[in-house]
Amino acid sequence: MGLLTFKGGIHPNDGKSLAKDQAIAEVLPKGDLVYPLSQHIGAPASPVVQKGDHVLKGQKIAEAGGFVSAPVYASVSGTVKGLEKHFNPTGSKVDCIVIENDGEYAEVEYPEVKPLNELTKEEVIKMIGDAGIVGMGGAGFPTRVKLSPKEPDKIEYIIANCAECEPYITADYRRMLENTEELVSGMRVILSLFENAKGIFGVEDNKKDCIEKLKEAVKDEPRMEVNVLQTKYPQGAERQLIYAVTKRAINSAMLPADAGCIVDNVETLVSIHRAVVEGKPLMERVVTVSGNAVAKPGNFRVLLGTNQQELVEAAGGFKTEPKKVISGGPMMGFAMMTLDTPVTKTSSSILGFTEDEVEKAKPGPCINCGRCVEICPSRIIPSRLADYAERHDEETFTAQNGLECVECGSCSYVCPAKRPLKQSIGSMRKIALANRKKK
Predict the structure, then answer these.
(1) Are 256 and 398 contained in the same domain?
(2) Is 261 annotated among the ligand-binding residues?
(3) Taking 80 as the threshold, does the pLDDT of residue 402 lie above it?
(4) Which of 138, 142, 110, 160 is CA-nearest to residue 274?
(5) Residue 372 marked in a binding site
(6) Same domain as 146, residue 264
(7) Residue 433, Cβ neighbours under 10 Å: how many?
(8) 162 belongs to an annotated ligand binding site
(9) Mean pLDDT of 411-417
């Protein structure tokens, strides 16, 4: 029997050897902490503190601004300096709460938690929502909303996205090795909400040590199993992961719940454990700092709101001036114009490179080779869709299934003409999706 996978995909140099063997190291912030009010999909959080207020670590500083939203918590103790505009990792200036760290890390007294088997489903979902947990793999969708489908009895699979298919990033890999029990506990919490569901840990076969640890950890869990996936990009994309594990296909008009599935990232599951079993809100995450311009690549447990420049310094700084710095992975991340930006709930990595491969590429005309079609995981025709996008032909773009693109960048990676296919398609896709919402 072959490894579980999907049609298409690519095999880029993964670069994971730079940081994969570096155990998670703790980094404490030196300067002010900056907390964007929007670290998630949906309405921004609303501040509940004012300039001059003294706050404790674990204190709520912004409450959810609507049903699809998430609260924000202070990760240090100190004084609120005010509500200011700061750059976020994607380069936008957004409203942020700024806290001057007093260096004492005095914490609130967390409420006593009941054992999981004594909690109602409503209590579990409320604890997850109150903790401010969102999808921490990059999407940032509020987890409370994801765990509240219209028909919970029809959910058959809870899939832990343990693929971590983006090159260079090893934060989830270290979490799987070092926090195995917390990861399994997070899955146990979610399964308590869905009686008819099975918990599946989908792990790529290049992470054999993680597979062994997880199999050992779930051997006495009748509702959990480990599925070994083929190592391939984008194996961790939600649609591709669901298809690999269940052979169920979803499209842009569907949610995973429509196919009886819920998918959560490793970091999200660990945070769910912390919220429900330990009673603590989301205040930290693990971030990979890597790339050939970084002096000492590694994986760091960092408090949310920490300046990303400080995180790079914890990795020894840059051994040579980087030509490009990326927030997230090289395939789907964002080029950064400054490191003076905070670590947020969705910050998985900071990558520094000595060369800018994209800048060096000189796009040429399509040669109709078909490589983009062959590797496309969404089974669409990227070269044609990019043409429609460049001509601003939204009607034909939509008719030719442009909305089914997952923006993985595989087409741009293999294109011999170096056309920016993903960028063109992604821009038109955002316009088309926005227009569809208006109807």
Answers:
(1) no
(2) no
(3) yes
(4) 110
(5) yes
(6) yes
(7) 13
(8) no
(9) 96
